[in-house]
Amino acid sequence: MKDEWKRISSDDGRLMYEGFTFGGKPHGAGTTYYENGNKYQEGVFDAKGLAYGREYYPNGNVRFEGAYSIQKGFGPNYPVFGTCYDEKGNEYFYGELTVRKNHAGFPKVIKPEGFGPVVLKESPDLKVFFGDANEIGSAYICYVRPRGREVREAFLEFLEKNGFVCEEQEELGREFMTGSRLPIKIDFGNKVYSPVNSMIHSTLIATTNRMFTVGEFCMFFELWSSLIIV
What are phi and psi of 189, to 5 degrees? Predict the structure, then answer.
């Protein structure tokens, strides 16, 4: 299996997801949609749902922007650190969300109090995508395009310092990535990084605005590595 860019629609022709997939399911950068055609979530997806990005209300306003847990058990990924907005688009909370699970293991946000259920009743039913985390584990793919050779070298050193290993593709190894202007593909779950060697692939990522900057990736890595859920 390999990661591919796809548009996935329901049986009645409604667009449900567009973005990168693995094994035919959302995995990596992409966007899901409400039945009314508005965006539901966009960002980086793993086997259980959104891992980092934005969630919207049905009216199109942002509900949450930030990092999500990487769930391995029952229930969806849930927000853990970021910015919360009300339905009119007003920011009302920034920081670490307090999340507890009920007796069945389903997550519930208790701070901030006004957040409401993790999954809104209007949210699209995406169990066909995120029903079984064991199919591809908790790994997910993201892309980073450092600007300039020195920045790229420093970023690769950051990855290696934190346990990431270079997955070389024929002659396209670490040296190629240091001098290339193409994005770097990062398999977060398996802690592997590798070169993007296709201009078409790179263009797809750039035109959909689903790529991490170095700063965004480092922030997300720090949050993901230090999450404390009560």
Answer: -70, -40
Cα–Cα dist 207/189, whole Å: 25
Q: Kindly give the pairing relationship between strand 3-9 and strand 98-101.
A: unpaired
- Alpha carbons within 13 angstroms on the beta-carbon side of residue 112 total 15
Number of helices followed by number of strands (H, E) in the chain: 5, 14
Average confidence (pLDDT) per 10 residues, the chain, 230 residues:
79 90 84 95 87 95 92 75 95 93 74 91 83 42 84 92 79 78 79 75 55 80 55
Measured CA to CA, the distance from residue 229 to residue 210 in angstroms comes to 27
Contact 54, 41 (CB under 8 A): yes
The rounded distance, in Å, linking the Cα atoms of 198 and 219 is: 27
Handedness of CA 101, 69, 210, 126 (dihedral sign): negative
- For 142: left if phi > 0, alpha if psi spans -120 to 50, otherwise beta; the answer is beta
In the prediction, which pLDDT does 140 show?
A: 57
The two tokens of residue 24 are 């035919």
**3-state DSSP assignment of residue 120:** coil
Tell me how far apart the terminal alpha carbons of the chain are, to the nearest angstrom: 36
The string of DSSP letters for 36-83 reads TSSEEEEEEEETTEEEEEEEE-TTS-EEEEEEE----SSS---EEEEE
